[in-house]
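A.,

Following up on our hallway conversation. Structure tokens first:
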């Protein structure tokens, strides 16, 4: 990924989630608190005009129509996956997690919300250009920002030097991250943080019949990702996840695919469905 400018995909995901948050058809899917945090982060990142425009139906419809031409239902998918991740993280904290580490946090405010509402320390690992928007909003809180390459073999030590306690129960998050990393980096991260007291919540892309990670029914997504310098590089079939996790010290608690997201949070919804990315919840073995 580029490291001199904020992640373009991070901006798209944040704006897409905010679009759904303002949509009266999906009231309650994104909490008011999350909606307000997304708005604040987007304003801080220079996307304030776009964020403000999404308050109005005509602009939301235009954004949804444009996104659906690339991946039908993708904006709603962003909001659904974030809801599933937030619920899983909340459960991990209720079960005893006392720290949180977010890999590739982008513009998502889950770290800001967690330090405010749960009062546990949070570390966010991402490129500094993407983190910059959050730094002013996080002053005085127990959140630390680290500009570390996820492929860095010393990431455990670097987190520890910034106060993370390896022996304390931790919930890790990697939302929309692993698909951009080489397979060996994903496996190294899983192995590095495997512990019986830890939890990991992350998303994975399916593989197409040709072995390419992508959403089904996507039109032009691969080309756009290449143009912005953030191509998908890793995917895994859901059926292969248990074996992969077991090899690297984890066990599955839940796998939430597109149909599960709809049934869990929007039963009866007939809006287009983005299929191809799923949420995994794991516990250290």
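Then the amino acids I'd put at each of the 285 positions:
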């Amino acid at each position: 990924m580029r490291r001199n400018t904020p992640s373009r995909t991070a901006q798209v995901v944040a704006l897409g989630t905010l679009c759904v948050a303002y949509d009266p058809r999906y009231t309650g899917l994104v909490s008011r608190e999350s909606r307000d945090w997304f708005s604040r982060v987007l304003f801080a990142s220079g996307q304030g005009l776009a964020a403000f425009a999404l308050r109005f139906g005509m602009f939301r419809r235009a954004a949804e129509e444009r996104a659906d031409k690339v991946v039908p239902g993708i904006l709603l998918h962003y909001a659904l996956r974030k809801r599933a991740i937030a619920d899983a993280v909340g459960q991990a904290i209720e079960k005893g997690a006392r720290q949180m580490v977010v890999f590739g946090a982008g513009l998502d405010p889950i770290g800001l919300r967690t330090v405010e509402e749960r009062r546990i320390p949070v570390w966010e690992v991402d490129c500094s250009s993407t983190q910059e928007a959050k730094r002013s909003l996080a002053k005085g809180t127990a959140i630390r920002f680290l500009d570390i390459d996820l492929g860095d073999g010393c990431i455990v030590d670097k987190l520890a030097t910034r106060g993370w306690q390896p022996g304390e129960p931790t919930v890790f998050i990697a939302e929309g991250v692993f698909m951009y990393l080489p397979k060996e980096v994903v496996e190294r991260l899983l192995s590095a943080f495997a512990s019986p007291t830890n939890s990991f919540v992350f998303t994975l892309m399916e593989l197409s019949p040709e072995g390419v990670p992508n959403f089904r029914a996507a039109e032009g997504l691969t080309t756009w990702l290449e143009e912005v310098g953030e191509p998908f590089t890793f995917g895994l079939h859901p059926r292969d996840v248990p074996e992969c996790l077991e090899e690297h010290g984890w066990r599955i608690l839940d796998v939430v695919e597109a149909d599960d997201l709809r049934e869990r949070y929007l039963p009866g919804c007939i809006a287009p469905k983005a299929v191809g990315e799923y949420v995994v919840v794991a516990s250290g073995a």
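The longest strand covers residues 277-284. Curious whether your intuition agrees with the design.

B.
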